[in-house]
Design a protein that fits this description.
rod-shaped, 2 domains, 66% helix, 354 residues, Alpha-Beta Plaits
């Protein structure tokens, strides 16, 4: 999960909470109109306003899902309207009725606690106007019962809020940890585990940065260890892996830090030389060939010939035709170098044409 996804999740929770709040308010209005207390007036101005605002905000939410409505402001506004409604209803009764006040208070507390279980601020601003109104109308005669009715959901919401904040912090830390591990895995997936050089995926990633600087004065080298199958047959794959590690280190040490060295295949390597002229490119290729030869890794590749591990190199300019074309030219040059004695460097025809 990215930071963007995290924000989208929080936005989604905000919208669902607001929709539930508006729906419960609309249903409460419908019940209040259908079944008024003591057959008093069915309609009051504030209750009609609650219904109109709830339905309007619901329609707005579904019509424009990208826009966030200020949930604290809406909950405060509806809380004030409910408090106004309770005052009107209470004044229409022959005498102050405690059961009506407690039912009204519990209704608002229920709506707030269900809708804002993870939002203590919205719960508070919605319930506070009604709570103060009910306490004022009751004249403190049943304050203990009122206090219990208020405290129970209030304490529950507060505890839930604390738990949710801890869970959010834990989730956020876990998300950051997962992102770090993902970056590490991405880096590892671009590196050949045996040689520590870039693999083909890593090369493509680095190539984008090089191409952003243009395609002039870049050269592609394809390198292949001579008679490597015979080396593995004679010395075993474990020794073959050791030879690959030593050869790859020699190649890496022979080029500049800005050049891109890639393990292109089993015993095949690719080097992208950046921002240098043809003469320097040929000199670099020769330096690589010599460094590998100087490793003095014994190599008996047939019964008659004993020598050291060597490499053959094909060289081609990157040019405007693209990396695939350059690799094709370098591969043809490498093929000719292999058939002309190995341990040698050949430039592609495209270099001479240029």
């Amino acid at each position: 999960m990215t930071a963007k996804n995290w924000r989208a999740l929080l936005k989604g929770k905000h919208q669902l909470s607001l929709r539930l709040f508006l729906l419960l308010n609309a249903l409460s209005v419908a019940f209040s109109i259908a079944s008024p207390v003591f057959l008093t007036q069915h309609f009051t101005v504030p209750v009609i306003l609650v219904l109109a605002l709830s339905l309007s905000f619901l329609i707005w939410q579904f019509a424009d899902k990208q826009r966030l409505i200020n949930i604290n402001l809406v909950s405060l506004l509806l809380g004030i309207l409910w408090a106004w409604h309770i005052v009107i209803k209470n004044n229409s009764l022959p005498a102050t009725d405690t059961s009506f006040l407690i039912i009204a208070l519990l209704t608002i507390l229920f709506i707030g606690s269900i809708s804002f279980i993870n939002n203590i601020a919205a719960f508070t601003v919605h319930c506070l106007p009604v709570t103060l109104t009910v306490l004022w109308l009751d004249h403190g005669e049943h304050w203990l019962r009122m206090l219990y009715s208020i405290a129970l959901p209030g304490i529950g919401i507060t505890i839930q809020h604390i738990i949710q904040r801890r869970n959010d912090k834990f989730t956020h830390r876990l998300m950051n940890k997962l992102l770090e591990e993902k970056e590490t895995l991405n880096d590892l997936s671009m590196i050949d585990p045996l040689t520590g050089l870039y693999n083909r995926r890593g090369f493509q990633n680095q190539l984008e940065n090089v191409l952003a600087l243009g395609t002039d004065n870049h050269f592609v080298l394809l390198l292949d260890i001579d008679h490597f199958k015979a080396y593995n047959d004679n010395y075993g794959h474990s020794m073959g892996d050791q030879a690959l590690v030593r050869v790859s280190a020699a190649i890496r040490d022979a080029v500049r830090s800005r050049d891109i060295v890639t393990r292109y295949g089993g015993e095949e390597f690719m080097v992208l030389l950046t921002s240098l002229d043809t003469e320097k490119a040929l000199q670099t290729a020769e330096r690589i060939r010599q460094r590998v030869y100087d490793l003095r890794i014994p190599h008996l590749f047939n019964d008659e010939v004993a020598t050291n591990v060597t490499i053959s190199i094909g060289l081609a300019p990157l040019g405007t035709a693209g990396i695939d074309e350059a690799l094709s030219h370098a591969d043809k040059a490498l093929y000719r170098a292999k058939h002309q004695g190995r341990n040698s460097i050949l430039a592609s025809d495209s270099l001479h044409a240029a």
